[in-house]
Design goal:
Structural class: alpha/beta
Shape: elongated
CATH topology of the largest domain: Rossmann fold
CATH superfamily of the largest domain: NAD(P)-binding Rossmann-like Domain
Distance between the termini: 54 Å
Radius of gyration: 34 Å
Strand order of the largest sheet: 9-8-7-10-11-12-17-21-20
Number of helices: 22
CATH class of the largest domain: Alpha Beta
Largest sheet: 9 strands, mixed
Strand content: 5-15%
């Protein structure tokens, strides 16, 4: 809002207010006499028949009175702003109305022709508004000349946010740059002028604009821009040798207002995961309200964000389970602002312990379970596959058994895109967990479903976390392959859709989140290294065993269907009888890693009906799928 009220107004602002009152008063003098002369065809001899001077003191008094009531003189307004002009129009309209009534009802000689009073109001508005416009224009010119030393910026985006950012860059002392040109892809905005700056084209005109206006900065003034848009604009800016600054998403803006100080360099989330997710989460999450909700793996990246978002929807009790005491410490601190670890809703427990899991479920009788506990690091699990069996398969089965015994009404298993066309121990174990979840959903009361998605920005141990650490250490940054691609989504976006999926999913389904377009990891690495001096090298290390070139969200032969949410699709998951995996420890030695890998692969293939697994899958990536992009 342009008006700032204060009981103590600085002397400089008081003088500005006094100057405006004097200006508006002078405008009324000019307006009254000019309107009367116009009405009398500029015949000065006829003016003496009226008492125009008698209206001037009344006009002054009314102008100050209504100006105070309408806020025109009670605070400080930005010169020539819409809010100030609106307050000025209301004030002059009220003064004109009172003068018109007074002119009609006063006995004796009328001070002025009635029609002249109406015209005087219009002229007073033009005069007072014109003075403000001239002052605003002078300030703009002075501001631009004063800031000649600032970097020159091109603003991309001339929507409401773009216009506010232009104003902020022009008038705030903390402005990091000075706008000199505008770009917008909207054809209807071509040649639009904002604060004397003209839209000279779309993104294709960026290189030309940078040279023509000697600009060194590109400001992306679109808080709703998706990651793909920011990546493309950033690539064009690199070609034009422009530094890039972005307006953060609306969720990061204080009060939804944008200021020059909000500008920052693009983050990984801006480049990869920023996306608009439109969902009525309040309504979708009604199944959590006044329910006992349990989250396994609550100390992890996904689990902790689940806890934070679930807590907003009024569960009767939120039980957070993890075997990592440090993770539980962090999630309690983020939820309660304290971390004394003394809450009965914090449960230190390993899901491998079947007896304790069953005992806990019997005690708390959860209504809703989000199963996020899992081992997820592919190379480590390839080297130690028995750990994937213990946590991702047996651990999931122990949670499913306990949930069925406790009468859970809704069970959401957090899966991964690596379960689609699995070719690693991580993929096998998570695919088997999907099949087990489907089995319980078809044979027990309640709804049991899985949610499948890809890489999550900011999660512990993610590729971007590794990149940041390598860059801080001076490099090199290691990438497995120049062409490897991955899907990315922010933790907040992923969890919103997980909660939504929990509301709309059905038994035996794996709901697959729309992850947007896959991104080349090498491009991300180059972007993150771009502004560092000395230059940080990028080293390609080769794909690791079980690692795909391109991740997939759907397996070959899976028929995907659109759900009730535009960003969620679903597939039917064949159910897997738990007897296939309950006694695996009696069939395969934990020391015989190759046999264990083969057993899980065959179990998945036979029980779930997936494609046969190549015999060399345990030693190397599936090179037979590289050509068609499925690896």
């Amino acid at each position: 809002m342009a008006l700032v009220s204060s009981s103590i107004v600085p002397a400089r602002l008081r003088s500005k207010r006094s100057l405006r009152i004097i200006t508006d008063s002078a405008a009324w003098v000019f307006a009254l006499y000019a309107a009367v002369l116009l009405r009398l065809d500029f015949d000065m001899t006829r003016v003496e028949a009226f008492r125009v001077a008698a209206l001037i003191p009344l006009a002054w008094g009314l102008q100050f009175l209504f100006g105070w009531l309408f806020g025109l003189y009670r605070g400080f307004w930005i010169n020539g702003s819409f809010d100030e002009v609106a307050a000025l129009a209301r004030t002059i309209g009220a003064v004109t109305g009172v003068l018109f009534i007074y002119d009609i009802v006063i006995p004796g000689t009328r001070p002025a022709p009635a029609s002249a009073i109406i015209a005087a109001g219009f002229l007073a508005l033009v005069g007072a508004g014109g003075v403000r416009y001239v002052a605003r224009h002078a300030i703009d010119r002075r501001r631009r000349s004063r800031d000649e030393g600032l970097p020159r910026a091109i603003i991309f985006g001339t929507g409401e946010c773009g216009v506010r950012m232009i104003n902020s860059l022009l008038f705030e002392d903390s402005s990091p740059c000075i706008p000199v040109a505008l770009l917008d892809d909207d054809r209807e905005k071509q040649n639009l002028t904002v604060k004397g700056l003209r839209v000279i084209g779309g993104r294709a005109s960026m290189f030309e604009a940078a040279r023509r206006f000697n600009a060194s900065v590109l400001v992306i003034a679109i808080p709703t821009a998706e990651g793909s848009t920011i990546r493309e604009l950033t690539a064009l800016a690199d070609l034009a040798e422009l530094e890039v600054l972005v307006v953060p998403p609306v969720t990061e803006l204080f009060g939804g207002q944008v200021r020059a100080t909000d500008l920052r360099e693009p983050t990984e989330a801006d480049l990869l995961g920023r996306r608009i997710i439109e969902t009525d989460l309040e309504q979708a999450a009604s199944y959590l309200q006044d329910r006992v909700v349990l989250v396994t793996g609550a100390g992890g990246s996904i689990g902790s964000e689940l806890c934070r978002q679930i807590s907003r929807f009024g569960p009767r009790r939120l039980v957070m389970l993890d075997r990592d005491e440090s993770g539980l410490h962090q999630v309690q601190l983020s939820l309660e602002g304290r971390a004394l670890l003394d809450s009965p809703d914090l449960v230190l427990l390993d899901i491998r312990d079947r007896d304790r899991v069953a005992e806990l479920f019997g005690e708390i009788r959860p209504d809703v379970v989000f199963h996020a506990a899992a081992l997820k690091h592919l190379p480590l699990l390839q080297a130690h596959p028995v750990e994937a069996l213990k946590s991702n398969v047996w651990g999931s089965l122990s949670v499913l058994d306990a949930a069925a015994a406790a009468g859970v009404t809704r069970f959401v298993n957090i899966s991964t895109d690596k379960a689609a066309n699995a070719c690693s121990i991580l993929g096998y174990s998570k695919r088997i967990a999907e099949g087990l979840t489907s089995y319980f959903g078809l044979r027990h009361p309640g709804t049991y479903l899985s949610v499948r998605f890809g890489n999550v920005l900011g999660s512990r141990g993610s590729v971007l976390t590794a990149f940041r650490a390598q860059i801080e250490a001076g490099g090199p940054v290691t990438v497995t392959h120049p062409d490897v691609t991955r899907y990315f989504m922010t933790i907040e976006e992923a969890v919103q859709l997980v909660i939504q999926a929990g509301a709309i999913g059905h038994d035996g389904e794996a709901l697959v989140l729309d992850m947007g377009e896959p991104v080349k990891i090498s491009d991300v690495a180059r972007r993150l290294c771009a502004n560092h001096v000395p230059e940080i090298p990028i080293v390609f290390t080769g794909l690791r065993p079980g690692e795909k070139m391109h991740e997939e969200l759907f397996a070959d032969g899976e028929a995907s269907h659109q759900s009730d949410h535009e960003l969620i699709r679903y597939v039917r998951v064949p159910d897997l009888d738990p007897t296939f995996v309950r006694d695996v420890d009696a069939k395969v030695s934990g020391k015989d890693m190759a046999s264990l890998l083969e057993f899980l692969a065959r179990t998945m293939t036979v029980a779930l009906g997936d494609d046969p697994v190549p015999s060399d899958v345990f030693e190397a990536p599936r090179v037979d799928r590289v050509a068609d992009g499925a690896l």
